[in-house]
Amino acid sequence: MRPFSFIGIFCEDVRDEVGGTHTVVGILPDNLNIGALPGMIAKLAIYIRIQVDKDYNPKVLKARMKIPGGIAFEIADLADLIRPTKEQAESSNMPFVGLVAKAIISPLQISQIGRIEAIVDVDGTEYICGVLNLIQPEANARASNASAPPA
Fold first, then answer.
1. pTM of the prediction?
2. Which numeric CATH code is attached to 4-147?
3. Every domain of the chain and the residues it spans
4. How far is 19 from 3, CA to CA, in rounded Å?
5. What is the pLDDT of residues 2-23, one digit of tens each?
6. 76 CB contacts (<8 Å, ≥6 apart)?
7. How many whole angstroms from its chain centre is CA 92?
8. Residues 19-71: pLDDT tens digits?
9. Distance separating alpha carbons of residues 120 and 2, to the nearest angstrom
10. Contact partners, residue 32, CB within 8 Å, separation at least 6
């Protein structure tokens, strides 16, 4: 079993609350209709919850998001947070270190359909922790293809 786990949730907003909590607003479905291309998502947020075994010491721990077409956005570099968070986990008698990475992009231009992926890099190995599949209704897809220049 891996000494870490994570989950990414795509949503409309992530709000920081008093007392260190977060509110995740408008969790998106697995498939999101973007309409005609080029398109836009007015506001897209990602909330990634990461748990690392307190006896595991990754040298690299990063979160990023990749959109169709290969464009990537770095969300967070969390390696420097492991040690202080590990101390908190040990003092609370927790078996793991808990970390959160979050980002809000507004607006997000979409040039092609495909998958938006939330990725966590642990010591050079990438793990997909969330996927948002961008789709078009059939009528929009035909219209986008009809206006595209021949290949």
1. 0.86
2. 2.60.40
3. 4-147
4. 28
5. 899 999 999 999 999 999 899 9
6. 62, 63, 101, 102, 103
7. 28
8. 989 999 999 999 999 999 999 999 999 999 999 998 898 999 999 999 998 89
9. 14
10. 41, 132, 133, 134, 135
